[in-house]
Write a structure and sequence with these properties.
By secondary structure, the chain is mainly beta. The N and C termini lie far apart (43 Å). The chain is 12% helix and 41% strand.
Length: 128
């Protein structure tokens, strides 16, 4: 059995996002700003579709680099119990399923978080 690369998974996820976006509803969105002397930029959207809630990093997403980057949420500050995934790529479109245990209404920020050093790499304030 052949193992899929992260870039192939990213392309497949983005294709899924594009097809889902037609039937889905964007409920929150924002733009990343860098933190802790890191450059993080690009858009992020939270989308509800087909009974799932998705976090979508848009095509222009960029992170300059850091060890152990993860995606999580915060409300006026990072909440460590909100991590949902490891970052698949430091650039480009990516889609992540938000677990049903996370109520997106409880949060107003998306974080790119360095788990190794417990610091934010980027924050996107969510709004409509």
């Amino acid at each position: 059995m052949r193992v899929m690369t992260k870039s192939l998974l990213t392309v497949l996820a983005f294709t899924f996002y594009l097809s889902s976006a037609q039937a889905g509803q964007v409920i929150k969105s924002g733009e990343f700003e860098g933190r802790s002397d890191h450059v993080t930029s690009g858009g992020v959207s939270i989308l509800r579709t087909n009974g799932q809630t998705l976090l979508v990093l848009e095509e222009e997403f960029f992170l300059d680099g850091a060890p152990d980057p993860k995606i999580g949420f915060g409300k006026n500050g990072f909440q460590s119990d909100s991590l949902i995934a490891e970052l698949n790529s430091k650039t480009g479109a990516q889609v992540y399923v938000i677990p049903k245990s996370i109520d997106i209404a409880d949060f107003n920020e998306v974080y790119i978080w360095c788990e190794k050093f417990s610091i934010p790499l980027g924050v996107a304030r969510l709004g409509m």
